[in-house]
Amino acid sequence: SEYSGGKRSLQLLGELRDERGRAPHSSRGMAEPVRGIVIDEMGKVFTVGYDRALRVWDSARTEGPPAAAVDEPRGKPARRPPPSAESLMANLYSSTGCHDGAISAVTSDPDNNWLITGGFDRTIRVWSGDAKRVSELHGFGDTVTGLAYVPATRALWASANSPQPFIYDPRTLSDVTKYHLPEAASPAQLERTAMHRIQRLFTLWDTGEVLASTNTRQLLIWRFNPHGAASILHAHTDWVEALAYAHKPAERGEHGDEVGQDSLELISAGSDAVIRRWEPASRHNPALFDHTTSDAGHDGAVLCALYCGAVECFVTCGDDSTIRLWPEAGPTAAP
Fold first, then answer.
1. Is 335 exposed, middle or buried (0-12, 13-18, 19+ CB in 10 A)?
2. CB 266: neighbour CB atoms within 10 A?
């Protein structure tokens, strides 16, 4: 960009071409639409298109300098000639056949140095920086129309011509929508009542906001609250009065290496007289828990709870004048 006549204007420098001088995304000799473009912190530019290819360009290395500006009559700004077939950025490599259909969306995950693509084949695929496939998520009911990575929560937002976004942990591709949008209606209910479908998703990195455009020309905005709860757990039907947890680190072998995995169990109880057990939903995110079982035993509100490592039991008491012991696993109560 440059200033011209007191106004800021953009000047076309050139067009990207592949190693054979063709359009960056071509199929059977025909130029295909370029659907998405992202750039990483190292200056690599990734492009995807309807030719099902992922191409990587190096913005720090050029294959041909832009043509010199053409002089104009006095008083008019210099103009540039039409771009040549030479690429302004070196094409490092290309990976073809990345999806079974056209690639329709792309985003980057800088925390893991991954590229994430979605396509008309109704799948999401995760790629390393050198275009090697890391993982895949399938089962969407329509074309993946939008992808956006949210660094504030390290979550991947996706849309598949759907009335609401789907949210995943990109490290495991587990569905964490209910933790990020706890008030959202069920997918089946939304399919019946929603008047719009999400087409594209965008992230504003500085503010932590996610923007979505819809087929009804609406703009939807979700805003990250840095002072809000990391997750909200729903299960109780009345006040929650007591919480307790048991954490056991992984055992170590003879050479100091870990044998097995850490275990963590959380219980909650309250005025509904039910002991509810929770376990981590993802090993990569300790703030996400799934409700596993509900144990009944008290005849009134449960007011206190703790974990006793000596007997490996949770201990609860309430206004029914009883103290009850609950094993770490299983619903049987030992009075």
1. exposed
2. 20
